[in-house]
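Translate sequence into C-alpha cells.
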Amino acid sequence: MIREVLIGSAVAVTVFLAILGFDITPLIFIGAMLFMLNYLLDGKVGGNLKTVNDVGTVKFEDIGGQNSAIRELKEALDFIIHDKEIEKLGIRPLKGILLWGPPGTGKTLLAKAAASYTDSAFVASSGSEFIEVYAGVGAQRVRKLFESAKAEAARQGKKGVVVFIDEIEIIGVKRGSNESHMEYDQTLNQLLVEMDGANQEDDIKLLVIAATNRMDMLDEALLRPGRFDRQVRVDLPDKKGRLEILNIHTKGKPLAPDVDLEAIAQDTFGFSGAHLESLTNEAAILALRDKSEIIMQKYLTEAVDKVIMGEKLDRKPTPDELKRVAIHETGHAVVIETLMPGSVANVTIAPRGNALGFVRQTEKDDHYLYTKEELEKEIKVCLGGAMAEEIILSDRSTGASNDFEQAIKYAKDIIYSGMSKLGIISKNDIPKRDLSMAVSEIIKNLEEDVHCIIESNRDAILYLSDIILKEESITGDMLRNSLKSVAA
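Result follows.
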C-alpha cells in the first residue's frame, strides 16, 4: 500500500513540474532506473512463482510406471500427514524431498500428486529463474518465493504448501564451481537458510520438493540430513510400467480392435513417460492424416519409429544408394534373426533423421545386464550391414560409420568389464594403444562369424532387399516368413 502511495505521489509531482515548465527528463531517467532496480530486487515474483490451482486433479493413481518411486514418496509424505503420531515417536519431520532421474519420467507430476496427497497448496519454480548477473538478486528471489508460497497457502486456506523447484542443479551446483560468479553461491546459501528456517510448528507447514537429472552436480550441503532428507529415484519405466502409461494416454482415444498395447510396450524399451505420451499423440496425428476415425496398430508402430528416429525426410537417395541401403539393412536383419530369432520388429529404408534406413528390434524382456556372449552378438549385428555390402556389392560405404562406433563401444564394454584377454583392468590407466589393439582384435575375430552368416544367406538377402525396395519397409513377421520360403 505504501509503495502505491509513493508511486502515485511521484507521478503527481512529475506532472506538476512539467506543467510549470521544468525539464523533467532527468526525473524520468531516475524513475526508470529505480523501477528497474525494484524489478530486479523484487525477483519478478510473478515470473518465477507458478501457482497451480487444479493440483487436486493430479493423483498418484494417474501416474503410471513409477510404483517404486510413488511408494517411497508416499512413505515420506505420511510423516507430514500424521505429524502428531510421528511427534510422539520423536521422528524429525522432513523438510525436503529430491526427485532425481532421467528427463521425461514424471518428476513434476509426482510433485503435484504429493501436494494433492497432503492437501497442500502447490507453487513451482525453476532453478534458472533465480540466477541474474546482479549480486543478491537470486537470494532475494529465494526469500520472496518462500514468503509468497506461504501467502498462497493462506489464501487457499491450506495448512501446508509444497514448493517445487525444477532443475535445482542450476542453483544447487557445488559451491566453487562458478568461481567468477558468486551470485550462484549466494543463491544456494539463501536456499539452505530458508530450508533450515522452515519449522513444522508454523501455522503453514512447508515442504520443498526439488527435481534434477544431474544429481552428481549438487552441493553436499543440500543433500545432508535436515534438508533433502529423502532422495527418490524416478527411473525409466519397465515393460509393465510402459503398458500402464500407454493405457493412461490412450484412455479416451478411439482404438481399433487390432491394437496391441502390450506389443508396443515391449517395443519401447528405454522410452520415458514423455516419449510414450508423444508416441500416442503421433499415432493419433497419423490417423488424422489418413482420415481414419480410429487409431490402428500400424499408426502406433510407425509412431514408435518416428519418436526414435524423427519424421520421414523428403530427400530421396538415388536408385543405387537405395539398393545399397536395402542390402545394408537386410544384412543387419539377417544377422539379428540368425543370432536372436524372432527379435526383428521392422526393417525400413525410409529416411528418418540422420539415417537412410534402420532395423528396429524388440526384446521379450527389458535388458539391464549383458554377458560377454550377448555383447559379442551385438557387435556382430553392428557388422552385418557393412559385411553384406562387401560380399554382395564388393565394397563398403560410409553408411556403416555409426555401426562401427557402436561396435567399438560394445568391445570397450567387454574390456572394461574384465571379459577380454586383458583381464581386469583400470579404465583410466590402460594405455590407448593397448586399448585400441584389444578392440581391433575382438572385432576382427567376430568379423569371420558375420562373414559366414552373410555368405550362407546371400540369396535371402538379395530376395529380401528387392522386397524392401518395392515396399519401403517390412515387418519382422514378413522377414521371417520370407527367410523360411527362401530356405525351402
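Note: Confidence is low (pLDDT under 50) at residues 43-47.
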